[in-house]
Amino acid sequence: MNRKRLTQQGWFRVLAMIIALEMVAIAINFFYAPIHVAAGGATGVAILLDTAFGINRSLTVLIINLAMIILSIIFLDRKTVRNITVGSFLLPLLMYVTPSYKVVNDAVLAVIIGGGIFATGVALLYRLEASAGGTTVPPMVLKKFFGINTAVSLLCIDLTITMFNLIVSSTNAFFLAAFSLVVTMIVMRYIETGLDLKRQVQIMSNKHLAAIHQMLLDENLSLTIYEARGGYTNEAREMIMVMLNGNEYAHLLRKIHDIDPDAFITTTNVTEVHGGSLGY
Questions:
Q1: pTM, whole model, 2 decimals?
Q2: Closest to 206 in 3D by CA, of 262, 248, 246
Q3: What phi and psi, each to the nearest 5 degrees, are found at residue 245?
Q4: Residues 248 and 142 in one domain
Q5: Which domain holds residue 152?
Q6: Nearest CA among 198, 179, 206 for reference residue 244
Q7: How many Å is the maximal CA-CA distance in the chain?
Q8: How many CB atoms lie within 10 A of CB 211?
Q9: Which among 198, 39, 49, 51 is positioned nearest to 122, based on CA atoms?
Q10: pLDDT for 18-48, tens place per residue?
Q11: Spatial CB neighbours of 56, under 8 Å, sequence gap ≥ 6
Q12: Position 280 pLDDT exceeds 60
């Protein structure tokens, strides 16, 4: 790969990272902050302090992120520090330059839209192996020294911050914040797994496997045939494995059942597939 190509990829990564962080800033300034809902993280703390004391949100995020950079320098490796540093400075800057006003009046709708935008931005950062810093650092430290699962500790931190809505804002804000965590989790999970979702189909047939094999070849599908042994009969049989896109599954199922209505089929969702064809 030549130097020009590497430079282009570097600039693309920086641009994608800025877009992802701006999505986080928009979610906070347009949807969460105007209705005083703090849904965890450094931005949640910023919303709480802004609501209670009028402290600038971007300043709060910057101070928290600086503290987290120092924490990561002390306890984590250089790669982690490098991954969180750029985002830690860019996010408060983008929050500062992005205007803040209420886009929708309905609080539930604001949480749904804001949660979707926020989750998309964070998921994109994960894809880029980047981070906005903040409360993602303590879970990594806890994982390193105590073996505590990062997802569990991050959820505990976010829930703790969410609980402060009861003190600073209202019960309504607390439930909205809790709901926003659910929205964010669902959207992130879908983005991380649903956009590249494939299905691994395994097929066995007592009498018609050859015909099914030929049908798959006629459909221009790559496939793998391997031996399976029955646990009760101890008899060896062949099994076909094929990888499909989601929109191909129903068509294939119908074609198999047309050949053998009693074919034994198991299907597994596969979130990602890398590399070339499995058929040979």
A1: 0.73
A2: 262
A3: -75, 155
A4: no
A5: 3-194
A6: 198
A7: 75
A8: 14
A9: 39
A10: 999 999 999 999 999 999 999 889 999 999 9
A11: 50, 96
A12: no
* N-terminal to C-terminal alpha carbon distance within the chain: 29
Any idea which residue has 């408060």 for tokens?
A: 92
Query: Within this chain, do residues 134 and 116 fall inside the same structural domain, yes or no?
Result: yes
The tally of domains found in the chain comes to 2
Q: Positive or negative CA dihedral for 190, 193, 197, 198?
A: negative
**Mean pLDDT, range 88-109, rounded to an integer:** 93
CA distances from 119 to 18, 86, 182, 195 (A): 15, 19, 10, 14
| In contact, 147 and 27? CB cutoff 8 Å | no
CATH of the domain at 258: 3.30.70.120
Burial group, residue 99, by CB count within 10 angstroms (0-12, 13-18, 19+): exposed
User: Rounded to an integer, what distance in angstroms lies between the CA atom of residue 271 and that of residue 280?
Assistant: 23
Q: Which tokens belong to 245?
A: 């896109």
